[in-house]
From TrEMBL:
Highest taxon listed in the record's lineage: Bacteria
One Pfam family matching this protein: Pkinase
Annotated EC: 2.7.11.1
Stored Gene3D superfamilies: Transferase(Phosphotransferase) domain 1
Catalytic reaction equation(s): L-seryl-[protein] + ATP = O-phospho-L-seryl-[protein] + ADP + H(+); L-threonyl-[protein] + ATP = O-phospho-L-threonyl-[protein] + ADP + H(+)
Keywords: ATP-binding, Kinase, Nucleotide-binding, Serine/threonine-protein kinase, Transferase
GO molecular function, one term: protein serine/threonine kinase activity
Binding site for ATP: 78
Protein kinase domain span: 47-320
The protein, known as: non-specific serine/threonine protein kinase
Length: 471
């Protein structure tokens, strides 16, 4: 098993322990140390980092396993590690913010199923290579197995109007909950919003939150100069007061980047008019555009003040005020009104699953897979049953199942490669399933049909695009 060393700057952080391939040894082993720098690898005696997820402004995130859960649950271990050379005051501020992320996650994550839950927060005292003591801080949170909106944007190019409205509603409901707790997120952007594989949206990174405890929201305290360039409104950049509407501004910029497909958000800013220019880049419902524009007003007193106000404005748009959204809003309402009763998160897959659209690459890759896998299965079935009709019926059923599973995203991306590799290996090692065909002929036949599937799908996509342009 690979275990990742979390010491900043460790020259060889990848460690491999063959004994840890065995789960019962993972559970019982005392400790493991980095073979290069001697750093203890099993954090708090419990969490084993396996992979680097990424580095943010205040820390480094690792994917880890929790060895004391029955299924060795995956989790995210974040280590406090501020970037750049900070002075003592800045360092203390960064550390406070890291701790605040833990406090906020503990409060919010356990009450809302679209915010990662906090599992642990602890310091670790270790000796460095010069035999001096060093202290590290770790925060362990729920792992969201999915993709950030930023990653999806890179894959898809841009989001449709229907998709962004669904995202807008979902995040507004989340913000309503967060703001009701007197907390302002302050770092809403596509890289901090994540789609779980089951279609549920999550809000991440509460490292920049401002908690206005004992003060009304927007009370007279400075915002400590934390912002994401391009997403943050003027009041946040100037280090002044922050308000719930500060998050609404960042949410509007987020939605506009998704609609326009512009990944470099600064390119949306027009220095001449001193505002974000986006309407000419996309064709959307003008009322929806007006709502986004009102979320983007620089003057706080003219911008929408609360998430509820925006939700109300959205519900007045006839094409978007659907029964389903009223239900979502009602269920959120009951969640907010009964905070004491909710202590554990329910991790059920939502009934109203968001059917995310497929990128062109995903469609063509799916077609190639279906052609390849379908052919392998048809060959095997034709050689397995003596009755050709039975084989063809079974093959057709499998074919339909393959397409259905992809449409519902039960299988996607690397699953497709794994499934076709397994089927191919089975055919390779069991000649009975190939009949008179040699392995070379099987490959040629499967690849050929896979190419035909891609060609037919491309043709249909082209016709569909042409029709949508004409109609
Ligand atoms: N709970 C989580 N589940 C899954 N992935 C996560 C989770 N939290 C963070 N990540 C991923 O880990 C990486 C680093 O996250 P981190 O929050 O440390 O920084 P960031 O959001 O990329 O940057 P910044 O702090 O500057 O906003 C990102 O790719 C993020 O998507």
């Amino acid at each position: 098993m690979k275990v990742y060393c979390t010491r900043p700057g460790c020259p060889r952080p990848h460690n491999y322990f063959s004994d840890l391939e065995n789960n019962s040894i993972i559970r019982t082993v005392q400790q493991k140390y980095c073979m290069t720098c001697g750093m203890p690898l099993i954090l708090a005696g419990r969490y084993l980092p396996t992979k680097l997820l990424g580095k943010g402004g205040f820390g480094t995130a690792f994917l880890a396993i929790d060895r004391y859960t029955p299924g060795m649950r995956q989790c995210v271990v974040k280590q406090f590690q501020p970037a750049g050379n900070l002075n003592q005051t800045q360092m203390q501020l960064a550390q406070d913010l890291f701790e605040r992320e833990a406090i906020v996650l503990e409060e919010l994550g356990n009450q809302h199923d679209q915010i990662p839950a906090l599992f642990a927060y602890f310091p670790l005292l270790v000796e460095n290579l010069n035999c001096k003591e060093e202290q590290f801080f770790y925060l362990v949170q729920e792992y969201i197995d999915g993709q950030t909106l930023e990653e999806e944007l890179v894959e898809k190019g841009r989001f449709t109007e229907t998709e962004v409205v669904q995202i807008l509603r979902d995040i507004l409901n989340l913000l309503k909950f967060v703001h009701n707790k007197n907390i302002i997120h302050r770092d809403i952007k596509p890289s901090n919003i994540m789609y779980h594989r089951n279609g549920k949206l999550f809000l991440l990174d509460f490292g920049a939150v401002k908690q206005v405890t004992n003060n009304p929201i927007g009370s007279n305290r400075s915002s400590t100069g934390i912002y994401s360039l391009g997403f943050s409104p003027p009041e946040q950049i100037s280090g002044g007061q922050v308000f719930p509407s500060t998050d609404l501004y960042a949410l509007a910029v987020t939605i506009i980047t998704l609609l326009t497909g512009e990944q470099e958000v600064n390119k949306l800013f027009d220095v001449h008019s001193n505002q974000i220019e986006w309407r000419s880049r996309v064709q959307i419902d003008s009322n929806l555009g007006n709502i986004l524009d009102r979320m983007l007003i620089a003057a706080v007193n003219q911008r929408f003040g609360t998430a509820t106000e925006v939700l109300e404005a959205l519900s007045k748009l006839p094409q978007f005020s659907q029964h389903q959204d009223l239900e979502t809003s009602k269920s959120m309402q009951s969640q907010i009104q009964t905070p004491v009763a909710i202590t554990n998160k329910s991790r059920t897959i939502p009934k109203t699953r968001i059917n995310r659209s497929f990128s062109s690459f995903e469609i063509l890759f799916g077609a190639a897979f279906t052609g390849f896998e379908g052919t392998l299965i048809a060959i095997a079935l034709l050689n397995l049953f003596s009755l050709t009709v039975v084989s063809l019926i079974c093959a057709a059923a499998v074919f339909v199942m393959l397409i259905f599973s992809q449409i519902n995203r039960w299988i996607e991306k690397q699953d497709l490669l794994i499934i076709s590799a397994i089927t191919f290996i089975v055919l390779f090692f069991i000649p009975l399933l190939r009949g008179n065909l040699g392995i070379g002929e099987v490959i040629i036949l499967s690849c050929g049909i896979s190419l035909i599937a891609v060609a037919i799908t491309s043709l249909f996509s082209l016709i569909q695009k042409l029709l949508s342009l004409l109609l």
